[in-house]
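Worked problem 6 (solution included).
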Amino acid sequence: MDSLITVIPESEVTAAYKKEAKEWTKWDSKNRKSFPYNYTAEERVLVLEGSATLTPSDGTDPVTIEAGNAVTFHKGFKCKWKITKRMKKYYTVMIAAADDGEDDLNLPAIICDICSDAAGCVEESYFVAKDEIDICPKCYEKEKDKYPDAEHQKGGEAWVLVEPVSIPAPASEKAAAGKKKKKATTGPAKKKQKKK
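Solution. The predicted structure is:
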């Protein structure tokens, strides 16, 4: 293999590949425009919409991917993504079996845009939409006041820690509990007769 990225044009993508891709995770670039990425495992992609230019960190020529392309990012490929048209894609990470029979769970890393350290960012990062940067937890903790709008992410998805809360009783229940109990009566209510 000469390259760490393989791009198959739309005209050569098989129906079987397209069918399989529908089972993968769907990704949308939304407002992301540019970011570095380090492929620590093989990733396969089917680009549904949009386009991007990928600039390999090894100095080789940039690669353009676009709607309809099937792309394989081989383990070890590092690049800078530049989204040229909002992209939507299906992707899957191929987890290889290690020699010892265990799965290699070294999944793709998000490279920190502050320290460029991919080692600590595999599953967790902070995304700052305004600046379109990803920050590793270590860098975020050092200067979290600088990034008040950072979104905590795990696996590339927003991660919200929900604290347990006690929920007070609704006001109607409190009011009902506070009222005095009426004397219970038995039988039908008596009707008053009108005087003639």
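Discussion: The two ends are 110 Å apart (CA to CA).
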